[in-house]
Amino acid sequence: MQSHYRTEIRKQDIGMRISALYRQQQLSIGIFDVSSVDELKETIDWYIQNMNCAIHVIMQEDRFEEYSFGELYPDVSFILFKSLVSLGEQINVFANECYATYFLVVRSDIQIIGFTGSSLLSLMQDKRHPACITPIMLNCDMEVLPTIRKPYIKGRELCPLSFEPPLEIGQTVLNLYPVMGLGLYDRALFQRLRGFDQEIMGEYYQLLDLGIRMHLFGYCILTFSDFAIRFSTKHSIIEDRTQCEGMERCYTRALSIHRIAGKNVVEKWKPYVDKKLLKEEVKSKQVILQKTDFFTLIKDWDHEEN
User: Fold this and answer.
1) In this predicted structure, what is the pLDDT of residue 306?
2) Cis link prior to 271 (omega < 30° from 0)?
3) What gap in Å lies between CA 114 and CA 118, rounded to an integer?
4) Which SUPFAM superfamilies match (predicted)?
5) Does one domain contain both 210 and 270?
6) What is the pLDDT of residue 305?
7) How far is CA 44 from CA 28, 31, 57, 119, in A?
8) Quick one: 36 and 97 in the same domain?
9) CATH code for the domain of 181
10) Beta-ladder partners of 229
11) Which segments in the chain show pLDDT lower than 50?
12) DSSP class of residue 164?
């Protein structure tokens, strides 16, 4: 993986890397470059002024060099990709490169308008042990976007339903996966679950696969009303749910195991089966470790919500 990217490490991080076995920062922020250079600079400036923690910017190497970001921001670390890669791979690399208990994934085209660090960290340590906390998302007109996803199957297809999140202060609601990858992640848990599957080519199926895995292995994803972001220019967000190379891997993990009388039983979910994954991962490892199945998840979802 290292050949696909390089890192420019901020001065403060060099010493921390040397003593990483002895101390670890609590939070690291990853800003994903998805907009204009000016907007990216404004975003970096805001985080430097308002967030007292390690900042990483994830961007293309050629843009970093062209605009001399290293000279402009000596106290910011940069993860520089030499070519275009999937969102999942970018987040995986960020999780590997940051030395923190939790990592926050944001973008250069959003503004944080609600973020109470103490409340978020307290929720992360809750007995439910969320793997990820996702924000309420608002468009440029301050309208709430429908970013809550609930598990659902239509025929033989995975077809999550979409809803608007609750707005009551301090309220949480279950979410199936982190829309656009945005959210606060438990780094150790993210890596224990092996992060995003880079053999899945589509962003939507990468996110769906990770979210379902988190739930099936006994963890949860929560959207928290005290954590909110606003898109600078977007009026809406559209997911590309088009079938893609590797999507069978998502289906194989999500639907190949049925829990019957407290035991996990493997059954192929046709027509979407990755035979190699079924043999090497699902039958050998997942069937032993999985805590529930997708069908029970659908049945119990509303009952488990706060």
Assistant:
1) 46
2) yes
3) 12
4) Nucleotide-diphospho-sugar transferases
5) no
6) 56
7) 13, 8, 8, 24
8) yes
9) 3.90.550.10
10) 112, 137
11) 1, 20-22, 306
12) P
